[in-house]
Amino acid sequence: MPLGKKIRLLIPPLLRGVRGSKHKKLPQLRGSRGGKTNLQQTNSQLGLTLTEVLAAVVMVSIALAAMSPPLMIAMATRIQARRAEQAMNIARQEVERVRQMVEDGEYCSVKKDSCNTKDPTKPLLPPVDNSITIDQINQFSAPTAICTTNCTAKQAFKEYVENDYFLVQVFRTQGSSLEKVGPNKTNQTVAFRLGVRVYHKVAEKNLGSLEKDKLDVVGVTNNQAGPSKAPLVVLYADLVRPNLDRSLEAYEDLLD
Question: What letters, b where the CB count within 10 A reaches 16 and e where it falls short, cover 200-218?
């Protein structure tokens, strides 16, 4: 069979195979003339617009502004509570120091008495003011000045704790005395009421106008004074020399 005739016989089946075959249609890209394609539209939906970002920033700022006051109050209360704890430790240590002195019995009642003159190395009881009575000791004047040594009842000394410091006022009533019981057989105060007030250092600028009532942990007192005027801690304790035959008598005389 001639070659040309063979070619003519083969062409129709090939055409029918091509026409009958199934092909998947590819997605058409629309808007090829200046318009966005489907691919471009999909990519634009994955990000945030500048307006949305600004709106989110504003909402976060409002939320933080609403939370700031409670956080600041909580932080201030925590700091104040920490200072009150430190002040309480100082006051307790001072009471225990005087209590141990009284129990040992080797102390002088006041400076420049016969006991102190004979042995200046003997420790002294806290300063006394004749105006202090046992039933009104809480009304005794707040400190008016700072002292380093030989403090009076109306002065306060500085006690340093970590990177902070406190003002400590220590005072007592005149108390009950017994004869020939102190060092060198001198008269000695053997029963008295002790008072300790501890202020934060910020109160130093208000010396002369400080309060006597204790400051609450949250920073409020009955007269609404803050830590710059009111003491953080106030302690009172009755101390009696215990190893004497007349200790009970002296204590009863103190309470009368």
Answer: bbebbeebeebbbbbbeee
